[in-house]
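Colleagues,

For the teaching module next term, I've prepared a clean inverse folding example: a structure given as tokens, and then the sequence designed for it. I'd like students to try predicting residues themselves before seeing the answer, so please don't circulate the second half yet.
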């Protein structure tokens, strides 16, 4: 067993507080938020059940963590209602509307520019 593997393997949660497994070695019955969403599920208010860890040079602490939830305690995703769909459509329209020329740009306005590209670079 490598040092990195042993450092991330804590199935009882004695070192990290919750059960911890190395990347790609989580037992069956656990899933991340994205994996739950792909199955049409959501955590449903449950606490984090476990975590997977791996070394990372990009992260501040040198470790990347993904939280896991129990699949058997997950709930179905709430269906999209007409009210939620219209609210989402209005929010997306607001993100696409240029505040300077008041037209629909057809894409989300970059926050770095604050306006559509033709208004930001007129020449």
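(Answer key — instructors only)
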């Amino acid at each position: 067993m490598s040092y990195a593997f042993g450092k991330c393997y804590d199935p009882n949660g004695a070192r990290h507080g919750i059960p911890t497994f190395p990347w790609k070695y989580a037992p069956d019955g656990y899933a991340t938020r994205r994996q739950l969403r792909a199955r049409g599920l959501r955590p449903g208010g449950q606490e984090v059940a476990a975590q997977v860890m791996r070394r990372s040079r990009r992260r501040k602490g040198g470790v990347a963590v993904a939280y896991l939830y129990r699949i058997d305690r997950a709930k179905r995703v709430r269906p999209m209602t007409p009210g939620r769909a219209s609210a989402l459509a209005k929010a997306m329209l607001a993100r696409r509307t240029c505040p300077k020329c008041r037209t629909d740009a057809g894409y989300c306005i970059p926050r770095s520019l604050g306006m559509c590209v033709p208004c930001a670079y007129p020449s």
